[in-house]
Amino acid sequence: MLLTALLFGLLVGTAAPASAHAVLRATDPADGTVLRTAPRHVTLTFTESVGLLTDSFRIYDPRNHRVRTGPADHAAGRSDTARVTLPARLATGTYTVAWRVVSADSHPVSGALTFSVGTRTAAPAALLPDRTENRTTTALHTIARYLAYLSLALLLGIVAFVAYCRPPTTAHLRAPALAAATALLVTTAALYLLRVPYEEAASPTSGLSLSTLTRTATTRPGRLLLARLALLLLAAACAALLRTRRARLPRRATLTAAAAFSLALSLTWAGSDHASAGIQVPVAIASTTLHLLAMAAWLGGLAALLWTLRHTPAPDGLPARVPARFSRLATLSVTALVLTGVYQSWRGLGSWQALTDTTYGRTLLAKLAAVAALLLAAACSRTWATRLTRATTPARAHVREPATVPPLPPEPSSAPPLPPEPSSAPPLPPEPPLAPPLPPDPAAEEAATSAHASFHLLRRSILAETAVAVVVLALTTLLTGTVPGRAAAESAQPDTPSITTGIPTASVTTIPFDTGASGGRGTVQITLDPGRAGTNSVQAVVYGPDGGFSKVPELRITFTLPAQRVGPLDTRVTNLGGYWSTPSFTLPLPGTWTMKVTVRVSEVDQVTVSAPVRVTR
């Protein structure tokens, strides 16, 4: 309980903007671009299909007033884009676009970009206060997701434990099974109510309106949550009906119904997480479903075994076949987890480098370390279970039944026998006297002592295994809300050409710098327009540590092409009263150029930073 409370506190305390599978790949206009004429649309291209909200785009003019736009839609029927139509006339200056969409794996993703018409102006202060995450909604949604995973594992694990391990009695498992089913029902309802507030970064109470509930039912995550609720209510109704009529289904029918219920319940998860988007979706959904079932059989069955051991007074009360069968079940589950886990890791990472360079990879490494600790604890549990099996068998074999001694004849007496008293009941036969107690059997005592020791050590080992399993479930919950490495790598590729406005797409690069002096930190944003081999215009803006425009006495930008040993080529940008620019600079060849920027913030403080820039044909 203490570990669970600690994990809940960690989840609440570290609630942050949700990461999603969909990552922004390109924008049109490009971020930071200065356009000669106003665009007709703003188009965003993502690494996967996205869903649109009623307020997916908010555009602010140079005075921080919201611009009236048309409804958001997809560009040319492409589900991986989001587009909004702009007014026919836009004033000169810098515009800010705040956007928020929902990725195919049900996680919202948001961001902002700027573009300028005619000339770049200073961005107004306190931008977009209404597009930040609602920490309360995010924390409640994260806790509900974790509790749902925990409840699913416990419920399906108890079902698998009862069906396969066949404990002599199951009365003690009714309470945890009912608690798991109730918790899963409540958390599913909570996730349904929080669906729209989570997507739109709104307060939790906004999900209680009738229009919001109706809108959630039209989305794929909402329909899957409703299907999960229907499955749980149907299972509860069937169980109540059988209990009322005191009827029992045949064993085969019970196993078939339990397997169908577990499979359908797992599909409601697989259809709404990372498996539902990206490459090889059908295979990924099947793999994720099998992964969930194996996880529940192992971890939930482990909790059921621990509960059974707690309610077993002594080793003799638990047949040795129960832990032996669970050992085989755990082995099959671990095999399935390894196979499906390797596939999902390959699908999510895409490269070995992403294992250490992305948040998804580092979280996956932490989960693998926890799983390794779980396997170590499972090996210890299996060792003690084997010893318990060996100890209980000879202990029972050495138990000897007490013998009886034939009755002795009565001693002769000189007194005449008294006549029996009249009675209506027949006389009782004489009881045979007990034999003297047998001497203690050393082998039986030794076996019983060994069985008791193995029994208590098995309890402790399974308790430690269960504690590590809670950590694994927590890391699994965090992993499902993290951008996969493959998507992160796709988002790092160069922007694709414009597909809507027909205006050349510029290459925008932002480089941080730090001279080491007080106030000598900031970023430089360099725009190379159109970002292709030939003649380009270069614009550079320096931002200070507070994010506002910063004036510096000197700025120098050079380009070098190491592969062809070309350069350095000086752009000779000049100060135009707020930003640096040159209207004509020639890059003779396509390729990956190294851009070096020298920033001087005072007479003695300057620094040179660099970044790669991809130049196309």
Automatic annotation (TrEMBL):
Listed Pro residues bias regions: 404-442
GO MF term (any one): copper ion binding
Keyword vocabulary terms for this entry: Cell membrane, Copper, Membrane, Metal-binding, Periplasm, Signal, Transmembrane, Transmembrane helix
Signal peptide residue numbers: 1-20
Topological type in the membrane: Multi-pass membrane protein
Main location: membrane
GO cellular component: periplasmic space; plasma membrane
Cellular compartment(s): Cell membrane; Periplasm
Top-level taxonomic group: Bacteria
The protein, known as: Protein YobA
